[in-house]
């Protein structure tokens, strides 16, 4: 189980899938995403079940981009949910995204 941002960065490598359980954009909740690329700054992900989705064609086929940000903006719970919060003055502590890693291997 992931307990901090450093562990999360190591866990989310190419091919790993995660399920979005909360998102600032409600239409993203429930999506299963697959990591296409990850590095120390962030990750890219696609929706493998929806090959025609615009998200999958973004960033030269790498998909949607997401930056890690600082560790203080993250929480990790006992059920395996990793949540990133906003750090904007007008919307502090609003969840940007919360997800659970569900599996996958490097592909």
Question: What does it look like?
Answer:
The chain has one domain (5-103). 10% of the residues lie in helices and 37% in strands. The protein has helices at residues 5-11, 54-57, and strands spanning 17-23, 32-38, 42-46, 64-67, 74-76, 81-85, 95-103. Strands 4-3-2-1-7-6-5 form a 7-stranded antiparallel beta sheet. The longest helix has 7 residues, at 5-11. It is globular, with a radius of gyration of 13 Å. The model has no long low-confidence stretch (mean pLDDT 91).
Number of domains: 1
Mean pLDDT: 91
The major pleated sheet works out as: 7 strands, antiparallel
Portion in strands: 35-45%
How far the N terminus sits from the C terminus, by CA atoms, comes to 22 Å
Helix fraction by DSSP (H/I, runs of at least 4): 10-25%
Are there runs of 5+ residues with pLDDT below 50, and where? Answer: none
What is the N-to-C succession of helices and strands?
HEEEHEEEE
Give a brief description.
By secondary structure, the protein is mainly β. The chain contains 2 helices and 7 strands.
Helices and strands in order:
Elements: H1 5-11, E1 17-23, E2 32-38, E3 42-46, H2 54-57, E4 64-67, E5 74-76, E6 81-85, E7 95-103
Antiparallel strand pairs: 1-2, 1-7, 2-3, 3-4, 5-6, 6-7
């Amino acid at each position: 189980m992931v307990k901090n941002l450093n562990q999360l960065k190591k866990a989310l490598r190419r091919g790993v899938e995660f399920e979005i359980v909360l998102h600032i954009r409600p239409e993203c909740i429930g999506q299963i995403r697959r990591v296409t690329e990850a590095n120390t700054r962030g990750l890219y992900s696609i929706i493998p079940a929806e090959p025609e989705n615009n998200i999958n064609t973004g960033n030269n086929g790498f998909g949607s981009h997401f930056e890690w940000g600082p560790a203080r903006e993250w929480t990790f719970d006992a059920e395996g949910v990793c949540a990133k919060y906003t750090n904007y003055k007008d919307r502090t502590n609003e969840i940007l995204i919360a997800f659970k890693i569900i599996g996958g291997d490097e592909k």
